[in-house]
Amino acid sequence: MDPTLAQLRRQYPMVSDLERRARWRMPRFAFEFLQGGAGDETGMPRNRAALQSVQVVPRYGVSVGAASPETELFGHRYAAPIGIAPIGFDGIMWPGATRLFAQAAQARNIPYMVGTLATETIETVCALAPDVTWFQLYPLAADDHRVTFDLAARADAAGAKVLAATLDVPARTKRPRDMRNGFGMPFKLTAGMLWQAGIAWPWALAIAKRGIPTFANIERYSGPGRDVSARYVGQHVGGGFDWEVLARLRDRWKGPMMVKGILHPKDAEKAVSLGIDGIVVSNHGGRQFDASPASVDMLPAIAAAVGSRATVMLDSGVTAGVDVLRALALGAKGVFAGRAFMLGLGGIGDLGAQHMAGALIEELTLAMAQSGVTTTDQIATLATHHPGAWRFDA
Ligand SMILES: Cc1cc2nc3c(=O)[nH]c(=O)nc-3n(C[C@H](O)[C@H](O)[C@H](O)COP(=O)(O)O)c2cc1C
């Protein structure tokens, strides 16, 4: 192992170690944009508590020396069923974030679902991470979705492996921390933010080196420049996909296609009936709808509803390898983590995402050995206790 990564492994074994450091290394407005949620912010602790409540019964007497988290997803063999989730405007939280995520994912051989609102283009990301890039799409409804379909075509031409359409942002939401910090679109550095940035010198040095980020995918449509693209994003990006547009997208995208942000089994079934290949069970990390259930509590019902017709994955609240084991025990084929990877960058800097990937993969391998399984497929056979699981009888 790279000696620096080996040292980081010893120094910062848990996400909580990184969070503590990110809090002072990032300016407050950026840290709170990352860590904030909708409304009263009950959704985020609910995600964590729900995951932590899932118990998995270990089996003993099995030789686990060869436990391996390698997993095949949509025809590619990954080092582990753990992906980096899309994070819009990631470069404002850690300058260079999109590139760093791409490089970390390629180096560790894990999926990177880069977002429409990332701060490098899909073409750049596919060049940096040719084997592991997936593309997350938001709708841009103007002109009968001309830009939506163009973005998908660009992702295809660049070599993205999987397309994921996000459904769980049907409208703007209210994030009080961003309001108090004056953090909005178009992004403007206020005097207060400059003060916060001055204290957070690791971030300030990084931004001095790399510049204030822009919505790189969008500049082709908006015209160049941070303010221009941000205004365009504010005006045009968002609103949920409806099923009719998803069906048209399905028609055009020839490779595997997922929907991200599903919580009701009936919505999962609807997606499968349109030919969608995968579902990301997610509540957007508690950032959109504060009353939504924890995504892990909806997972078993959704996995049962779609059966083997689609690949079910989970995000929202994953911060440890044992969470990945929990999700797989309840029917997921893999997970994504958002904040954990960004806290890696905020807490450590450029190597943070690689470090985080290494920590999660190692923890999953250890959790597999502790529970007596050697392949990720076997995890689904483990007995679980899941007090928060929802049941749908209708
Ligand atoms: C700062 C931030 C920005 C995000 N931006 C996007 C985005 O542009 N598109 C998207 O589909 N999801 C976005 N998400 C949601 C993540 O992809 C993912 O669903 C969520 O972070 C999972 O929860 P976790 O952070 O607890 O792992 C964002 C999340 C965060 C924290």
Automatic annotation (TrEMBL):
Domain annotation FMN hydroxy acid dehydrogenase: ranges: 7-389
SUPFAM superfamilies in the cross-refs: FMN-linked oxidoreductases
CC cofactor: FMN
Top-level lineage group: Bacteria
Record keywords, A-Z: Flavoprotein, FMN, Oxidoreductase
Family named by the database record: Belongs to the FMN-dependent alpha-hydroxy acid dehydrogenase family.
Name of the protein in question: Alpha-hydroxy-acid oxidizing protein
High-level lineage: Bacteria, Pseudomonadati, Pseudomonadota, Alphaproteobacteria, Rhodobacterales
